[in-house]
């Protein structure tokens, strides 16, 4: 499946974690959960505790984990907004939409339509209360999570042809729609203010790159 030989559930967990960070501005409960995750040496997402991304994220919690919760929430929320919302080009990268990074017009209407079609093919759509386009990186990563969970269920039930079909869909989506992720991570790294998001960008880049290379 991958060079790290992850199970489909581990694969889904890895992409679900990445998507969750991108899709949610930090809030108190989320920060508590992250603090717990990175205080547990057994946690890993694709790589291991010695991976540079995990080490850098863990370093943030070792240095700041005892701060008042509201201060951590505020610090991470500001960094999240700068990195992932594209509010102002003077203090953040262009927002992580596939069309922005892969199309010359920096919009990519055809990309948006194509991604939405992929979602619909599997019975998914963007909720009406969501303000982002379908080609937002967090949604694309969450789509990979969804397919990996479907592949896991197919394997457990002995439906190997279906599992292979989901694997093919994952690989095609990675190749067609997520090859721009590394470029975004490189740009965003110049603007990250916290070790948590510096490490996250490293982990994001390597996770997507290794998943694609293993196809």
Describe what is shown at a glance.
Helix content is 66%, strand content 0%.
Give the CATH architecture: Orthogonal Bundle
Instruction: Give the class-level CATH name.
Output: Mainly Alpha
In DSSP terms, counting alpha (H) and pi (I) runs of 4 or more, how many helices?
Answer: 10
Q: What's the alpha carbon Rg, rounded to whole Å? A: 17 Å
Mean pLDDT over the full residue set: 91
As residue ranges, the low-confidence spans are: none
Shape: globular
Protein name: Putative component of anaerobic dehydrogenase
Keywords: Chaperone
Organism: Desulfosporosinus orientis (strain ATCC 19365 / DSM 765 / NCIMB 8382 / VKM B-1628 / Singapore I) (Desulfotomaculum orientis)
InterPro entries: DMSO/NO3_reduct_chaperone, TorD-like_sf, TorD/DmsD_chaperones
Annotate the secondary structure layout.
Elements lengths: L7 H16 L4 H12 L12 H13 L4 H16 L13 H5 L6 H13 L15 H20 L3 H18 L3 H9 L5 H19 L2
Question: What features would you describe in this structure?
Answer:
- With 215 residues, the chain is mostly helical.
- The protein has a single domain, classed as TorD-like.
- Helix content is 66%, strand content 0%.
- The protein has ten helices and no strands.
- Helix 1 packs antiparallel against helix 7.
- The longest helix has 20 residues.
- The N and C termini lie close together (7 Å).
């Amino acid at each position: 499946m991958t060079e790290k030989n992850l199970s489909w559930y581990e694969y889904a967990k890895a992409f679900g974690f990445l998507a969750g960070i991108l899709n949610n501005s930090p809030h108190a409960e989320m920060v508590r959960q992250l603090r717990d995750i990175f205080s547990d040496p057994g946690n890993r997402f694709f790589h291991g505790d010695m991976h540079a991304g995990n080490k850098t994220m863990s370093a943030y919690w070792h240095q700041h984990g005892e701060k008042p919760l509201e201060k951590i929430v505020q610090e991470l929320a500001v960094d999240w907004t700068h990195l992932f919302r594209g509010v102002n080009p003077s203090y953040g990268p262009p927002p992580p939409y596939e069309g922005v990074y892969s199309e010359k017009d920096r919009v990519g209407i055809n990309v948006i339509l194509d991604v939405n079609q992929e979602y619909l093919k599997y019975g998914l759509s963007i909720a009406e209360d969501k303000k982002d386009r379908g080609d937002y990186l967090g949604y694309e990563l969450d789509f990979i999570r969804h397919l990996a969970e479907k592949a896991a269920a197919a394997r457990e039930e002995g439906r190997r042809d279906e599992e292979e079909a989901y694997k093919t869909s994952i690989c095609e989506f990675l190749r067609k729609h997520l090859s721009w992720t590394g470029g975004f991570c490189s740009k965003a790294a110049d603007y990250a203010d916290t070790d948590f998001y510096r490490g996250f960008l490293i982990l994001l880049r390597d996770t997507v790159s290794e998943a694609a290379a293993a196809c």
